[in-house]
Specification:
mainly alpha
């Protein structure tokens, strides 16, 4: 009887431990279903974007038609990839299952469970950050290629105007991303008040909860910047061939590093700031529940 009880408790606790403290994982699975239309739409956007970028090869490199074809293509590819945020997180979970990162710490273990069982909590971050990285990195890369191709011959005129417009576009996208990301992160964290209270009642501290959120955000950032940069590079390759005669210019690291630093640091700082209030008040909520 004692052995049966022990084995039953052990295997039962294993099933419960694999669930997220967010609760109601079935609702997340229901939401994950029915995404066929979204995936088809994403594929159409990506195909249209790559096709638009490829048409730049048929234009004269001395005109602005190559830019006019590549710019919209970059945006379409970024939008298509952003629509696949749910699938990107599913892929990240498959990778996390194969590597031991975060398994040894309580915060990392909880973050892995949340990402697997309730990825919808972090999906908006992947959506907005992928869009930002894809559009901003491709725009800056195009501008760097344009500057390199023109050299010192373009001292003003339309080249200077296009550069100013491109930098303005990147600034506006960054501002939009910051506002949207801040709103989504704050609302998502505040909705998790009961989860934090439940975890606090079983011994989790506010720093541990913040580290858990940092783990989740780090995974979202890594997925977003990787996919966003790959999409930007693929979109810009035809433009690089048109302007420089080869694809190497599309892989110049400076535009991508700059965008990744801004997106990654900004996202992590927003998450840390948004988590301070809810996690600090988790102990009070836990006491109220008890």
């Amino acid at each position: 009887m004692v052995l049966a009880t022990g084995f039953g408790g052990y295997f039962g606790s294993r099933a419960a431990a694999e669930r997220s403290p967010v609760g109601a994982p079935e609702s997340g699975k229901r939401r994950a279903g029915g995404g066929r239309t979204r995936r088809i739409t994403a594929a159409v956007f990506i195909a249209a974007g790559l096709g638009s970028s490829a048409t730049a090869l048929a234009t004269d490199p001395m005109t602005v038609y190559g830019t006019a074809a590549t710019g919209p293509g970059c945006v379409l590819v970024a939008v298509g990839l952003a629509l696949l945020a749910r699938e990107l997180l599913a892929g990240a979970n498959l990778v996390l299952r194969a590597i031991p990162v975060g398994k040894r710490s309580a915060a990392g273990h909880l973050a892995r469970i949340n990402l697997r069982v309730a990825p919808e909590r972090i999906r908006p971050v992947v959506t907005f950050l992928t869009l930002f990285v894809g559009v901003a990195a491709s725009t800056l890369s195009m501008q760097a290629i344009e500057n390199s191709a023109n050299g010192a011959d373009d001292s003003g005129g339309i080249g200077q105007l296009m550069a100013s417009i491109n930098y303005l576009v990147v600034g506006l996208i960054a501002a939009f991303m910051a506002i949207a990301l801040t709103n989504n992160v704050i609302s998502s964290i505040r909705r998790r008040g009961k989860e934090f209270a439940a975890m606090s009642s079983v011994g989790a501290t506010a720093p541990q909860l913040r580290r858990m959120l940092t783990w989740e955000m780090a995974v979202a950032v890594l997925v977003s910047v990787t996919v966003g940069c790959v999409g930007a590079m693929l979109s810009v390759i035809p433009f690089a061939i048109l302007k420089k005669g080869g694809a190497a210019a599309a892989f110049a690291p400076v535009p991508y590093v700059a965008v990744v630093l801004v997106g990654a640091v900004g996202s992590l700082l927003i998450a840390r700031w948004a988590a301070r209030g809810p996690t600090a008040g988790a102990a009070t909520a836990a006491a109220a529940i008890a």
